[in-house]
Design a protein that fits this description.
By secondary structure, the protein is of the alpha/beta class. About 35% of the residues lie in helices and about 15% in strands. The strands form two sheets. Strands 1, 2, 3, 4, 5 and 6 form a six-stranded parallel beta sheet that branches. Strands 7-8 form a two-stranded antiparallel ribbon. It binds ligand FNR. One of its GO terms (molecular function) is FMN binding.
Length: about 180
């Protein structure tokens, strides 16, 4: 099995990226056999239908990585109670058919939703919107558990995530997601 994580923030010291790294560590303890990677996508350009054909190289690469994944694990903050613009842009590229004969890569894909924010919502608003977008794209969303961590800075020291209180929830989501992917295949 291979799981591809997508951190919804491009910030170098992103809490959500650190959360994705912590998820990889949790998964490795539970299931060392699972191949886990975090997608690099900061080179994906703005969606522009004039530039769709042929697809930019970065878009082809991320589509291939998503296509190969047995499951996607999203870790996203929210910007103004919404999906961060860069992440929405990535999903917009992924939403388009690969070619005349090959559809878009999110259809049927098992997806788990996690995220953190410094405010009290834990990025739950963005997750609600992600459910809408991903449902429209026929992804298979794991509705429970979702992980929304509020006040994430209280679980960090000098910007480094310690993830004290939330670690068990991350482990539970990891375990449940592996079973969810198994059931879908
Ligand atoms: C934020 N932040 C934020 N936090 C929150 O709890 N609710 C919100 O609606 C917003 N809105 C928002 C908009 C924009 C444009 C920025 C840049 C930030 C704060 C956010 O939670 C914080 O910056 C996180 O650290 C972002 O996640 P990463 O980059 O650490 O993963």
């Amino acid at each position: 099995m291979n799981i591809l994580a997508i951190a919804g923030s491009l910030r170098a010291a992103s809490y959500n990226r650190q959360l994705a790294e912590a998820a990889g560590a949790a998964l490795a303890k539970l299931h060392p056999e699972i191949d886990y990677r975090i997608l690099a996508w900061d080179d994906v350009p703005f969606m522009n239908q004039d530039a769709e054909h042929p697809a930019p190289a970065a878009v082809t690469r991320v589509r291939d990585e998503v296509k190969r994944a047995d499951g996607l694990w999203l870790f996203s903050p929210e910007y103004n109670h919404a999906i961060p613009g860069p992440l929405k842009n990535l999903l917009d590229w992924l939403s388009r058919p690969v070619s005349d004969t090959e559809g878009q890569v999110l259809a049927g894909k098992p997806v788990a939703l996690a995220g953190a924010s410094i405010g009290m919502s834990g990025a739950a608003h963005a997750q609600d919107q992600l459910v809408g977008v991903l449902s429209f794209l026929d992804a298979r969303i794991m509705n429970q558990p979702r992980l929304a961590i509020p006040h994430i800075a209280t679980q960090a020291e000098d910007g480094v995530l310690k993830l004290d209180a939330s670690a068990p929830y991350l482990e539970k989501q990891a375990e449940t997601f592996v079973r969810f992917i198994d059931r879908q295949s």
